[in-house]
Write a structure and sequence with these properties.
Layout: E1 2-12, E2 21-28, E3 31-36, E4 42-48, E5 53-56, E6 58-60, H1 68-71, H2 76-79, E7 83-88, E8 98-99, E9 118-119, H3 122-132, E10 137-140, E11 142-143, H4 144-151, H5 161-176, E12 181-185, H6 196-209, E13 212-216, H7 224-238, E14 242-244, H8 258-269, E15 274-278, E16 284-287, E17 299-304, H9 315-322, H10 326-333, E18 336-340, H11 345-353, E19 357-359, H12 373-388, H13 394-399, H14 403-408, E20 425-428, E21 449-454, E22 457-461, E23 464-465, H15 480-483
Parallel strand pairs: 1-4, 1-5, 6-7, 7-10, 11-12, 12-13, 13-14, 14-15, 15-19
Antiparallel strand pairs: 1-2, 2-3, 5-20, 8-9, 16-18, 17-18, 20-21, 21-22, 22-23
The protein binds zinc ion and copper (II) ion.
């Protein structure tokens, strides 16, 4: 038989965490059809891998690529890292089910401007993604703040019972149409007034339909542990698997707290499905938040609506030049974006190495001077933290960006190199693999990603995107809690 694609003599990291093995991998149509030694096999396209590593395409479980997968379907920041699927709609903000005409509430403005929010239903969004034909697959959460924007006229208060009921109707419909679940961003000013009692019925609706709940916690600073408790209780009551977004100990006063936070996560995971995602950097990034303005850490402005000329400068310098306080300078710069150097390296490494964490970039694709995680998160984990620092074995690092991610987000037959699975694959040269994006030059493609296959088609090869654009919308069809393999329970 003549295969469509044959990758010869490759070191297979199958995504399960098992050690690599040498094999040939054959693809027919959109799926993997054979793995083993096939010296006599022929194929329309044959790639000689020379023992380089072949992994499942990476799954970026934490993104804000909602409108970019439609507006910039090449998706180069992700494709060049070997990412083959993005989960959009995190941190409470999603492009659907939303229409906006006037101002875009913070931080929904991270996703685009008012005209980019034009998907009254999840189905409208999903078909727009399919029509755009992105180079990578897309799966989507519904954001709680986005739901609020459709039913509330002001955000500085809890939703009324009627408003909660209206949000629930929107959410249930989206879940029926293939949304993965619900996300929240309870630390943001437009969601922080939502009490647990506002979240409970929404999370219960997610539990009813078998989705997942992801949350940017109400507090990532001194109140981290309490905020984790709130998330565990909400998810437990709603009977949903929980993913804590970008778990971190933010703020200089809270450094050294990762051990406590992780043991809390482990304890919860003994009784409920609980995981977290994280990115391999010690700085966070979002819209400029007055509550996070402090002189204890370095804050860099990445964009500012009223003062675009101040982009890329430290807030301290701007304030000194204007002869005002940091807070006053921040106020004048808003709306704006910022990079906050607010974590310790040791805490971040502890979270990254933990078996319950997945890798998610949290990249901000619409920032003109983005945090380097947008272009570098995945190669940085493999090259810097696994190969160079030996923080995690390579196979385990790959598991955190493939099979664990697929299981937690219900992406059936993905995240694994296995006969019958979708051929979403990344071939990389570990010797030259490098994230080249940094804080000074954040827009830079990684080195060493040699080939990316999406749904059986060559998507990226030898440094160039092909014209295939074979990604698609991944609509949820199963109960996620049932897809999670039972052995995940025992990992702690
Ligand atoms: Zn977030
Ligand atoms: Cu985020």
């Amino acid at each position: 038989m003549v295969y469509d694609l044959l990758i010869r003599n490759t070191n297979v990291l199958d995504g399960s965490g098992a050690p690599p093995f040498l094999a040939d991998v054959a693809i027919q149509g959109e799926r993997i059809c054979a793995i083993g030694r096939m010296p006599y096999a022929t194929a329309t396209t044959t790639i000689e891998a020379d023992e380089r590593y072949l992994a499942p395409g990476f799954i970026d479980v934490h993104t804000h690529d909602d409108t970019n997968v439609i507006r910039t379907p090449e998706m180069l920041p992700k494709l060049t890292q070997g990412v083959t699927t993005v989960v959009v709609g995190n941190c409470g903000i999603s492009a659907s089910p939303v229409t906006l005409t006037a101002d875009v509430p913070d931080p929904m403005n991270l996703l685009g401007s008012a005209e980019d929010f034009r998907y009254p239903s999840f189905a409208d969004y999903a078909s727009a993604v399919d029509i755009a034909r992105p180079s990578i697959n897309v799966a989507a959460l519904v954001g709680h703040t986005s739901l609020r924007s459709q039913v509330m006229d002001s955000f500085d208060r809890p939703a009324s019972n009627d408003e909660i009921a209206a949000m629930e109707v929107l959410l249930r419909q989206a879940l029926d149409e293939g949304a993965l679940g619900l996300s929240s961003g309870l630390a943001y000013r437009n969601a922080i007034h939502a009490p647990t009692s506002e979240m409970a019925p929404l999370v219960a609706a997610v539990g009813y339909s078998g989705g997942v709940y992801t949350t940017h916690l109400r507090d990532e600073f001194a109140g981290l542990l309490d905020a984790m408790d709130e998330a565990f209780a909400t998810a437990r009551a709603g009977q949903v698997p929980l993913v804590i977004s970008h778990l971190k100990c933010a703020g200089a006063g809270n450094w050294g707290g990762a051990g406590k936070a992780l043991s809390k996560l482990e304890m919860a995971a003994q009784h409920q499905h609980a995981h977290c995602d994280c990115y391999p950097y010690t700085a966070g990034s979002s819209t400029l938040d007055l509550g996070q303005v402090t002189d204890e850490i370095e804050i860099t402005i990445t964009w500012s609506k009223p003062h675009p000329e101040q982009a890329r400068r430290p807030l301290k310098e701007i304030a000194a030049e204007w002869e005002v306080s940091l807070l006053e300078a921040a106020r004048r710069l808003q709306p704006a974006g910022a990079v906050y150097h607010n974590m310790s390296e040791a805490d971040m490494q502890q979270v990254l190495a933990h078996p319950l964490s997945m890798v998610g970039s949290d990249g901000l694709p619409n920032d003109p001077h983005p945090h380097p995680r947008l272009w570098g998160a995945f190669p940085r984990v493999l090259a810097h933290y696994s190969r160079d620092l030996n923080l995690i074995p390579l196979a385990e690092a790959v598991r955190k960006m493939t099979s664990l991610s697929a299981a937690n987000f219900g992406l059936t037959d993905r995240g694994i190199v296995q006969v019958g699975a979708y051929a979403d694959l990344t071939l990389f040269d570990l010797a030259v693999l490098e994230d080249t994006a940094n804080y000074e030059t954040p827009i830079a493609a990684a080195k060493g990603i040699e080939l990316v296959v999406v749904n059986g088609q060559l998507a990226y090869y030898q440094g160039s995107i092909t014209d295939q654009r074979s990604g698609r919308m991944l609509r949820r069809t199963e109960r996620i809690s049932q897809v999670i393999p039972s052995n995940q329970e025992s990992i702690s």
